[in-house]
Specification:
Strands 3, 4, 5 and 7 form a 4-stranded mixed sheet that branches. By secondary structure, the protein is an alpha/beta fold. Helix content is 32%, strand content 21%. It has 6 helices and 7 strands.
Length: 187
């Protein structure tokens, strides 16, 4: 079974992730966490993700390819995209699914817009770091201590990450959206 969620907890994303993971009933079940600004674009994405899990269960944590994320190595074609035509992104998602299928390759760190792992993995590492804006990065490092982190080359998600930022570098490096209102000086 794969459980899907886009948890949110103001100023404590790791706490939100942990609350959801705790609710998953079995340690053998898989958990798919996504950002609220990320979306699947292909028909049958759920059955495709099931195939990825069945064929790559040796991985402790699996990520996806995207259009916009801070680490461009996880971006399609290795570059941050300002393309907003969703049809083009659907074409990319379909092409990658057929080109790479369920292939998962070892990867240094997967971004939190899409994280796929077994509840057992979450239990082994002691959950996500709470009250930290680096909960996803910390989780990657914890998983790497005992297992493999990989990226599903055939799984692509559109990610609106910092879409409103006009400057690419500013958008890619901004973490303000992860901070609490108080940390952002918004009262």
């Amino acid at each position: 079974m794969i459980w899907y969620s886009s948890p949110y907890k103001e100023g404590n994303i790791g706490g939100g992730y942990n609350e959801f993971c705790e609710r998953v009933p079995s340690s053998e079940d898989w958990i798919c966490l996504t950002d609220a600004d990320a979306m699947f674009l292909t028909n049958g994405y759920g059955s495709f993700i099931e195939k990825i899990v069945k064929r790559n269960s040796e991985y402790g944590l699996i990520g996806a390819v995207t259009n916009r994320v801070r680490d461009e190595r996880q971006c399609y074609s290795g570059s941050f995209s300002d393309e907003m035509n969703i049809r083009k992104h659907r074409e990319i998602a379909t092409d990658l699914m057929y080109e790479h299928g369920t292939l998962v390759e070892p990867f240094h760190l997967v971004a939190g817009f899409f994280m796929l792992f077994q509840k057992e993995t979450w239990q082994k590492v002691g959950g996500f770091t709470e009250n930290s804006i680096t909960a996803d990065k910390d989780f990657n490092e914890d998983v790497k201590r005992f297992g493999k982190v990989g990226i599903a080359r055939g799984l692509y998600m559109f990610h609106a990450y910092r879409l409103w930022e006009s400057e690419r570098l500013k958008a890619a490096n901004s973490i303000d959206h992860l901070k609490t209102k108080k940390q952002n000086n918004h009262v």
